[in-house]
Amino acid sequence: MSFIRTLRGDIKPKNLGFTYSHEHIVCRPAYWKQRGEGDLLLDDKQKSKKDVEDFKSHGGNSIVDATAVDYGRDVKAVKEISEELDIHIVGTAGFNKSFLWDADIKEELKPIVGDYKTYTEWIENATIEELTDFVVKEVEEGLEGTPFKAGQVKFGTGYNRITPLEEKTLRAVARAHHVTKAPIHSHTEAGTMALEQIDFLKSEDINLNFLSIGHMDRNPDPYYHEQIARTGAFLSFDGIAKIKYAPESTRINCILELVKKGYEDQILVSGDTARKTYFKHYDYGLGFEYIISKWVPRFIDEANRYGFDGETLIRKIFVDNPARCFTFKT
Which of 19, 163, 187, 314 could form a disulfide bond with 62, CB atoms 3.0-4.6 angstroms apart? Predict the structure, then answer.
């Protein structure tokens, strides 16, 4: 049986529709809150909802919310947005990267994870088996004690390194995948360490067709992308609109290079919209509507100029590929 698990329940893969594969909707990361970084606090449900509504008004159907437990997610608010707008949202179990773990654990989580002060303290003291059990429960029972279940499991690593604690969470997430069959997503810092992550996952006997690797456009290296694609993993180009890192031409060229090499079935695209200044209704940014309303037409035009069928590629990238990537196969 194949299904995609959303916060509102399981759906058939064919019902996922046009999908952003990596976003953040309502979250208050303790790490940034403790440092006074208000731009990184998506703390107004109604403003977030308006951006999601813009996405839907342009034909969007589904969003994968990649906010893990250590990034201050508001599960209830995101579920309410899903209900109120009748849009599918996939939640995320697992962990982020280690530098965020110095933050204080939310009081509401302590009955679930234990009486630890910080995420670092919890992860250091827990066994891999205990961390695995936590992730499994978030997929099979609900996120943070709610009845709203995760539809993917996540781990993260830092810039050009994988710390012992990051390896620990990676292995816990891999083992949770074996129990739940949930798809796996990885955070790479600036697009680094993807191949090293893959080596660890191979040692846990993971079928890499279940893996999507984030932030590939932060490391715009076509040779590197090809090495990753050869493993069967999905590559997520999820920094659309972030011109401070690279122009859109760089991202589009990297995607079309993969298409030329025959990997069009392994490409995902999204915005990782995690700052108020990226949102239209928080701070006049480009918002959730940008990719579907502005970037997609540009991509179609450029793809057509290179001799591809741009419309077909858009369907693959935003409809067909997410439907396969985020599917549980039991």
Answer: 19
Round to whole Å and give the CA distance between 76 and 2. 26
Q: List strand residue ranges (DSSP E) for the chain, in order.
A: 2-6, 9-11, 19-23, 62-65, 88-94, 150-156, 184-187, 211-213, 234-237, 267-269, 328-329
Contact 229, 262 (CB under 8 A): no
The number of residues making up the chain comes to: 330
Burial of 325 (0-12, 13-18, 19+ CB in 10 A): buried
CB burial string 145-176: b at 16+ within 10 A, e below: eeebbbbbbbbbbbeeebeebbbbbbbbbbbb
Helices (H), 261-291: 280-283, 289-290
Q: What is the pLDDT of residues 127-183, one digit of tens each?
A: 999 999 999 999 999 999 999 999 999 999 999 999 999 999 999 999 999 999 999
Domains of the chain: 19-329 (3.20.20.140)
